[in-house]
C-alpha cells in the first residue's frame, strides 16, 4: 500500500515530520484504515518530556499534525471521487488550526498509533478529529482544520 505522504508533489515533500525528501526528519507514513486513516510511529528515547519514560508533547503534536495534513488530502480526494494514491499531482493541505488535548502521559518505547476521522469537507477546508494511542490507551485527542493550498502557492 502506498503512503499518502509518498504521493506528495516533490516541492511539498520536505516536511520535517513527514517529508520523504527530508533524510533527517521523522518520515511519518499514513494509510487508510477502513473509512478512517492511521499511522504508526515509535519516537526515539531522546524525545522525552519532563519525566523520563514519557513522550515530549511537541512530538505528540507533530505526529498528529503530519498525520492530519496527509489525511486531509486523502479525505478530500475521496470526497471528489478520486484515490489520492493514484493521483499524479494530488492537492497538498496545511494546518491552520490544531487543538491538542493531552489526556494522559504517553509512554516511550512503545509504538504509537495516530488515527484521523473526517468531520467534514467544505471547499478547501477539511475538519478532522484525531487521536493518538499507545496500545489501547488514548493518550491525546485533537481537533484540526486543514486548508488546501492553491496551485499558485509557493
Ligand atoms: C504554507 C506554505 C506551503 C507549505 C507547504 C508544506 C506543507 C507541509 C505541511 C506539514 C504540516 C504543517 O505543519 S503545515 C505548517 C503550519 N501551517 C502553516 O504554515 C499555514 C500558514 N497559513 C497559510 O499559509 C495560509 O493561511 C493558507 C495557505 C493556509 C491559506 O491562505 P489562502 O490560500 O490565502 O486562503 P484564505 O483565503 O486565507 O483561507 C481559505 C479559507 O480558510 C479559512 N481559514 C484560513 N485560516 C484559518 C484559520 N486559522 N482558522 C479558520 N479558518 C481559516 C479562511 O477563512 C477561508 O475560508 P472561506 O472564506 O473559504 O470559507
TrEMBL record:
Enzyme Commission code: 3.1.2.2
Similarity comment text for this entry: Belongs to the THEM4/THEM5 thioesterase family.
Matching PANTHER family: ACYL-COENZYME A THIOESTERASE THEM4 (PTHR12418)
Keywords linked to the UniProt accession: Apoptosis, Cell membrane, Cell projection, Cytoplasm, Fatty acid metabolism, Hydrolase, Lipid metabolism, Membrane, Transit peptide
Organism per entry: Lampropedia aestuarii
CDD domains with a match to the protein in the record: PaaI_thioesterase (cd03443)
Membrane topology: Peripheral membrane protein
Compartments, as annotated in UniProt: Cell projection, Ruffle membrane; Cytoplasm; Membrane
One CC-aspect GO term: membrane
Residue ranges the record marks as coiled coil: none
Name listed for the protein in its UniProt record: Acyl-coenzyme A thioesterase THEM4
